[in-house]
Each structure stands twice: as structure tokens, then as C-alpha cells.
## 1
Amino acid sequence: MSKFSVRILEPSVQSTWDNFIDQADGGTIFHKYAWLKAAEKQSNTKCFPLVCEKDGEGIVSVFPVFLKNKGFLRVLLSPPNGCAIPEMGPVFGLNTNKQNKIESDQYNALLGYKTYIKQTFNPHFEYYLTNLYDVRPYTWLGYSTKPLYTYKLNLLEDTDKIYTSFDPSIRNRIKKTEKRGNISIRKGKPEQLDVLLSSVQNRYSVKGREFKVGDMYLKNLYQSFNNRSMSLNSLYFGTSAVSHYITLRDKDHVRFWLGGVKDTKVPDGINEYIHWHNIQDAKKQGCQYYERIGANTKSLCENKSKYGLSPHVLFKIQYASFLGKVFFSFFNLLRKNKGL
């Protein structure tokens, strides 16, 4: 039987990590080494880039985990909180197309991670968001699993067919915006990152929520990924920029990641116009999917589903020790009693 071993990747060979992410189907921009380091600073955690090697094959999986100490509790996260990262978890690059070997290798790799994590970090609580479609190995290893969803639009369809899949109300708003004229979408300027962040923070504040993404985190990411995988865009009415947003190019699809908060004085239809522009642009780039992150809140889904998007599944993976279960049960009860 092949031996699987887990270790922490040395910072001096971070290119090995990024090359693996680029080649593996489940690797995302959020897994890239520069993003992990930016998230580490933003979340005040310690990132450990774990790799799993199989005898005779080298690295077959990588798994970025973030250690957070909360008092006497040790929490292991992937992704860390407050970083606007919708998915992370382990990534696999298995050298086989045989289902029995895929299942065996994934199980043994995840078993290797679990053993290493227990021996090295001994966390009281583990929380992962993964794009792995088959999470049975996690359930076999004693983790709890829960499906979460995001929205994606298949761009391989004909452009006219994509447009007609929109709800009539969306198409009407796009047409009205186009008829107004004097509208354009241009590449954003670095100084507009502050405007974008402020607009999102204000939107959250109105809803009584806090948006924890910091300006240095955003600027570090922009510096690392601008002109490669991250695009800052601004929508102009004449000479005035009225909305700013960021899209992420990730292999075969484009994600609408952050922003898109319009000036209250601007007529409705701007966001619809932005998404239609992005969809056409992503299609021209040869991408397969356009993603609107998040499909778990009913009120938000009622609007997003009008764009012909389809739900795609992610999974929340959790594991808690006895002490972790006691603490989080008490914490949730306290929140409930205080109406939080």
C-alpha cells in the first residue's frame, strides 16, 4: 500500500505551491500563495501551507490552514474569517482517472491531513469551506458536512440564448440603461479602491452588519493580482464614476467578487448593465462560467436567479472536540439569549 505523508511547505519553494494550484482542477485564486499571505495578515492568524505527498508520485494534494487562538481554544480555518473568501479547503491533483484509485487516494490524503493536524495543532474546532464535490471521505473520518451554494452562468451557450434566459425585468433595465447613453465601463484606478471599500462598508452598516475587509488587505491583493487575475472596474456616467467593482479571472471562469454599490442618485439598471457587460466580456475571453458568489440567502437569490444562473454546490466541513462542542454550544446559547 502506498504511503502518504504530510508536511508544511517551506516559503522558499512557494512557486511549487502556485504551480500545483494552476494545474489542479480545484485550485482557485484564493489558494494562491500571495492571497494566503494577505489573508494571514488580514485575519490575524497563522497560515500553514500543508502538502500531502504519495510515495513515487510526489505532491498529490495541498491544503492551506489558518490557526486562530481564541482564549484557550485553538481553531483551524480554511478560509479564515473576514477575508471575503467564499471557498478554500484542500486541492487534489491525482495521477489517475480510475474511480477506485481516486476515492482511495483522496481518503488517504484526508486521513493524513487529519492525523497531522491532530498531532501538530490539536485544534478544538475545525472549519473548512471546500469545492470538493465528493465529501464522503470527510464523513467517514467523523467530520460533519453541510451543502452551501453559489451561482454560476454557463457561458458556452449562445449569447442570445444567455440574454433571453434573463427575467424580462432584468432585460428591460439593461435596455433602459443602454438607451440613456453616455455610459461606459473603464479600468479602475488604484485610488478608487478606497471608494469601493467605503461604499461596501456603508451598505453593510445600513443593514446593521460589519464588513471586516481592510484597506491594506485589498491593496495588497490588488498589487499582487492586478492585470493578471484581478480587475478593478468603474462605471461612468459621462465623466463621473458612479460604481466600482472587482472581478476575478480564475482559469475557466470570472467571479464578480466585490463592489457594485451604485450612487443613490443614479437611476436603476446600473447593476444589471454591469453584469451583462461582464458576462459578454467573460464570454469573449473564452471563459466557461460567470459566477455571482453566494446563493444561500433567499432574498438575494430572488434577484440573482433572474440572470439565468444555476446553483453550484460547495460544502462546509466541521469537526469539534468535546471541549469545542461545549464552548460553541454555550456561545450559541448566549447569542440566542441576548438576541444577537
## 2
Amino acid sequence: MHWFRSLVTWMGVSCALGGLTLACGPSAASQPTPVAADPFAVVRATSQAAYQAGKDYLDRGDLRGCPLIDTAKTTDPDNRPEIQQALERCLQAIAELPTATAAPPPAQRTIVLATLPAAAPASAPQSTPPALAKPTTAASPVAAATRQAVPAQTLVAWRDPQGRFSISAPADWPTADQAQALFGTGVVQFHDPSGQAEVDVAVDTSTKVVSPELYAASMEISMQQQVPGYASEQVLPTATSNNPSIRRVFTFTQRDASGRDFQARGFQVTVLKGSTPYIISGSAPAEQFQQYDATFDQMVETFRFS
């Protein structure tokens, strides 16, 4: 019996020591919990960098910061109030710029951006009753009279193979084998039979923007810096495919097939589908632009998102 009591005593001591070992050992709860990676880290950093650079421009009164603020807003995953406030500063500054009522001489380089349609001069004829008026492509009274005298052409619809939009052009205006565009990627380009005038549509899928005003401002800055002989004439609000848009009219230096430089006049209409800019552009020799103006307007009015 003595040996039995000794065995029981030894087993009790062993159990006690085992319990103390388990009690003192590390518990599962003390293991560090892995921290999940931030899925928005990259876009958040992109937004912050664009916001800071844009704000530096704005603080100096330079509207070149507005496209950067536009980028910051579209990449902001947190809906930060300071970015929204900077965007509102941009839109307010653009709205306060003077509205063009007549085209300045080609030598002048001006940016005229507005958020409301320009009022027609008092002497301009009213071709549309005020109750039916809506934002459309703006023009001078002389141009409006010319368009009224030109009969509407029969246009043929062209549809984007990717199903994004449609636009109509005169039946005798062929499409180019490869569309060219100053901004975005050219989708279609039409030429009149003489080769003097052209209209193209481009889509900028690489950029997400908040408003056509800010995208138009970025185009204005880019063309001033890169297009030979560029001079802005008008930048006015319009409506395209039932969406707000911006129409820019300008002159620039173009080179023909023989290498001769000549002055051309062109327009660009910027309209958004969601946050993707679509750019409808057209141009002709400056002295012939007037005769194509009505056709340009008719083509732009047929543009529709699918």
C-alpha cells in the first residue's frame, strides 16, 4: 500500500506541474491579428497628389490647377470635403470669367468660360420664341442669319461599332480610313468631297472628369501650349445629346499636302457620358469656315449617346 500511495502522490504532483505549464504558456488570443491591406491606397495617394498640386495653382489664382482638382475629385475614394471645396472654387472662378459676345482678333489668346448661355446682342434677330429657347451652339447674329439661309442637308446616320454613340453626316462626306484627333482616341472622321472641311468624334477613355467645363479648360491650356498659331475665339455652354456640353471656337495654323501653311478655323464640343469625355471637332480654312458652319451645326445636333 505504501508503494500505491507514493504513485498517487507522484501523479498528483505531475498533474499540478502540467497545469502550471499550460497556464503559463502563450494563449491563442495573444497572437497578433494580421492587418488587412488598404485596397484604396494607390487611388488615395493619386488623389492627394493631384489635390495638392492643383491647390498650389489655385492659391496663386492660376486656373491650370482646375484639371488637377478634377483628377483629385474623380480618384477620391473618401469624398473629402476639402477636394469638393476646391472643385467649387474652380467652377466659381470659371463662371466669373467674362463671357465672349464677339470673336476677338486672331492675334489675341483668351480663355472665355461660362456656366450660363451668353445673352444675344439687343440688335440680334430672335429666330426662336423665348419660351422655346434652350442652350444650343452659340454664334454671332451674322452666322445665325447665314445658317437660316442655308437649306438643311440630308444626313446619313453613322453608328459606332462599339455601340457608344451615333452621328449623322452628309451622304457625300466619306469617312477616313483612320480617324485623327487632338484629344482622346479618334473613332470616326468625315471629310467633305473637296477635302476642305472635316468633322471627327473622339473618346478620351484614359481620363475621368467631373464636368465638361473643367475638361474644356484643360484642352484650352494644352492647345495654347502645343498647337501652332492657336488663338481662342469663344468658349460657350451648349447642350449635346440632352447633356450639358462646352463648345470652343478657335483659329490655328494648318499645313496642306504641299507644305504650305494657312490659317484654319475650328470648333470642339465636349460632352460627358458618365465621367468619360466625348469630343466632337471640326475645321475648315478660315475664309471658308462660314459656308460649312450650318453643316457643322447640323452634324453636332444629330450626335446621340446609345
## 3
Amino acid sequence: MNFSRRSTLGILGGIGALASASAFARGRHGHGAMDPAQMDERIERFIKHLGVEVDATPEQQQKLAEIAKGAAHDLAPMRAEAIEMRKQAVALFAAPKVDKNAVEQLRVKRMQQADAVSKRITRALTDAADVLSPEQRKKAAERAGRWRHLG
């Protein structure tokens, strides 16, 4: 993999954590949703750490926090929808006779939701990329390369 592709993936991964606000929306280790204040506090803490590592100005940190919080708050309601869809899938599977049409409708609904989540995260990523300089994005990519789940 050439440097350009690696750095692009790293940038997406690094800023993705910032915009991966869905992780904040999911709650702590899958133990229920965080309230909006907790979510904002965790995002601000993450942005401060990222800001130090990439030498972000206070203004950049503020913009990044706004981007991440906006994405997190947009994505949080989708968590309840996803939980409900999983419950529906289990109920459909457990029925005496599986309704294949209902299963397909649920699959389509889940894919639409996944697309909406993906679009929102992508928008946050590109907004965050506009805030950081190429050198800062490179540092963010290097930081992301150290995360176990991306390696």
C-alpha cells in the first residue's frame, strides 16, 4: 500500500474517531446510551487529547468539537431504532413460520439506516478535514495507526 493510500486511510480513521460519534451515542461499552451532557464531555476530552497531538489551535479544537458533537447528536437517535430493528429481527426469526417478506423489508430498512449513518459520518469527516492542515491530518493519521482496531 503506498503512502498516499495509507495516509488517506489513516486520516479517515483518525478523524473517524472524532466523527465516530456513533460510538459516543452507543454509550459506555454497550451499557446504554449516554445522556447528551456525558456525550459532549467525552467528545470535548477526546478533542483536547487529539488537539495536543496534532498541535491544533483552540479555534480548531472548538470547530472539531462542534463537528463531532453535531454528528453524535444526529446519530444518537438511530441507536434506539437499531435496537428496535434487532428485536424485530429476533421476533421474526423466532416465529413459527418465518415471514420472508417481512425479513426483507427489515433488511432494507436497516440498510437505509446504515447508509444514513455512513453519510453523516462522512460529512463530519470531510468537515473535520477542512479544519485541519495537511500536516495535522498526517499526525492524526499516525495517531490512528496506533489504535488496535485499525491495525
## 4
Amino acid sequence: MNSYSYSKNSIETKPFIYTNLFLIGVLIENFYPASFFPARPSIIVGVFLCLVSLPFIILALIELHKAKVIFDPKRARATLITTSIYKISRNPAYLSMVLFYIGLAFFFNSIWMIVIVPPAIYMIQKFCIEQEEKVLEARYGTYFTTYKTKVHRWI
């Protein structure tokens, strides 16, 4: 492993953090249903949030494509992208996932899925984002440090 790598275990958990926690929320909801909104408004808010999440991931993927970087959640990104959506958020793909997850929670009107959002965000930040930022800081030094002071982690 070089200084730009992370532990294999943390990388492999990335794609499954939201998925696994979402499934836990579905499972709890199945046994202990708990709604928090009337059905119709909840579905409308859920669809809206899912739609709002799409530009973040689409713009992130476009920028990754322009930089000839493959979007692979199991690998560290070695290229620093600071254009387009990356001027607004250092982690637009993760932000998209959070918005989509919250949208699904509203769509299914599940308080359990909402309760699981903060732990999901914490785990993504701790086990994914912080490690990715260490890689980028090691590679880009003050350029990345300056970028961090100008652009928020989430939004």
C-alpha cells in the first residue's frame, strides 16, 4: 500500500453503507410500521427529494468523465476535480445519495428510515470521506487544503 491508498475493508464498505442501513430501516418498518406524514404529502416530498438528488450525481459523473476518472466507489479517486458541481460540494455523489435516501424514506413514509439517516451520514463521513480526503491531501497538499477552505464538504 502506498500513501495514497486506504484500507481494503473501508473501501469495500462504501457502496453498502447506505444500502445496508436502508434495508435495516425497511426491516424495522416491516415489523414496527411508523409513519410521520399523511401518505400523499409524504410521497410528493419523497419524489421531490429523489429528483433533487439527481443533478448532483449527474453533474459529478460528467465532471469525472471529463477528467477521465472512472466512478468506482471501491477505489480512491486520485484526481482532484474542482469545477462545476465540485465548486458547491466536495462530495456531490455522497450528497446525492443522502438526498435520495431521505427521499425514499419520505416516499415510503418511514420514520425508521429517517432515524437511520444520521448514522448513515456519520459512517459515510468517517469511513469514506475522511479517508478520501487524506488521500487527496497527501497528493495535492496545500492546493487541496485551500480547496477545503473554499468548498464545504456537503453543501
